[in-house]
Amino acid sequence: MDSQSISRRSLARGAVAGAVLVAAGSAASRADADSAGPGELDTGALRAAISDLSHPPATSAQLRAAHGTDHWYGTTGLADLTTGRAAHPDDKFRAGSVTKVFVATVVLQLWTEGRVELDAPIGRYLPGLLPPDFARITVTQLLHHTSGIPDHQGIPDTSTPEAVLRHRFDRWTPYEWVRTVTHGPLKFRPGTKQEYRGINYVLLALLVEKLTGQRYGEAIGSRVLRPLGLTRTLTPGDDPRLHGPQVHGHLRMTDGSLRDVTVYNPSSSWGEGELVSTVDDLFVFQHALFSGDLLPPRALDKLCALPPADVVMWKDGSPARYSMGLQTATVNGVTFWGKTGEMYGYRTRMFSTLDLRLRFVLSYTPTPLTTDEDMTGRVVATLTS
């Protein structure tokens, strides 16, 4: 459920997640990214890292990690507080902005097929949708979050957990959502700064639909999900429910009560944050992506190419850290590539070294509306120590 306040919080959370993973804002390229050295997983430390459900307050956590051929899965807490059922690796959850990696993958597949030019203006493919200045933004600039598109206007304020509940069944079309950002001038000249914005990927999902003649979720299904056998990953559209075995998300209200927020309409995250998946499915996808099963080498190079060095984050001037659908971070000399994802009551962290030597998928269910990255920090510190 996106909103103007959620957009602000997403930027802040992205910065925090980057700080946790980054150590020193990585500007590594795919060619020179560090890989993890030989070693084994410290499963006791990893279990301890996810077992502290007080920092941050959470109802459950799952982690699947690999270091070379050493693989481990662990879970703690409860997927369902009512029945007392523990989480399993094939339980569905809301993966948030991990959606963007799937969208970027399909766009780059279309580029390799010669069906889209990355340096072409988006207005060429979506004529009449955007004002003239916006229409000149290129496909690359959308992928890189360097578009300069302004903030949303005229959308609900969901800055409190009670407001989240009030608006949980609001329905938006992607065209309505696009119109909420076209009331003012661009924040900066496209291609000169970087600001993480979900609206960039709403436009890219519309591009996928225009080029393929399919709903963007069906394009992801035919090009990624079905070839990889990811049977529990989907884009739900207007369906507010998670069907089958699932992890429940909760929010702590201002009066201290805990409310289940598993059921809500994700249409305001269409194209950029609505993905439903599982730890196992994301682990398979991660391997397929970096092993070249989904993209040829030249497209993988694009996927992991940061903007030019003179492009910095718009808010604080730190180095750009988002490539085409991914983000990068270096911790203890190990450079990771992957994606964070958030929806109300859910957080997902999917990162790997490019050689797949060291990788993890973390899914947990924090109860505060905003919270620190303590669990992610513990996991990453353990994996890179």
Short description:
This protein has 385 residues and is α+β, with helices and mostly antiparallel strands. It is 32% helix and 17% strand.
Radius of gyration: 19 Å
The end-to-end span amounts to 36 Å
Please, how many helices? 13
Largest sheet: 6 strands, antiparallel
Number of strands: 12
Helix content: 25-40%
- Please state roughly what percent of the residues sit in beta strands, choosing from under 5%, 5-15%, 15-25%, 25-35%, 35-45% or over 45%: 15-25%
Mean pLDDT value:
91
Structural account:
The protein is an alpha+beta fold. 32% of the residues lie in helices and 17% in strands. It contains 13 helices and 12 strands. It has helices at residues 4-22, 43-51, 99-112, 122-125, 132-135, 139-143, 161-166, 174-179, 199-212, 216-228, 279-291, 297-303, 374-384; strands spanning 58-67, 70-77, 93-96, 193-194, 250-252, 258-260, 275-277, 312-313, 327-331, 334-343, 346-352, 358-366. The chain is globular and about 55 Å long. Mean pLDDT is 91; it is low at 1-20 and 22-35.
List keywords for this structure.
13 helices, single chain, two-stranded antiparallel sheet, 32% helix, alpha+beta, globular, six-stranded antiparallel β-sheet, 385 residues
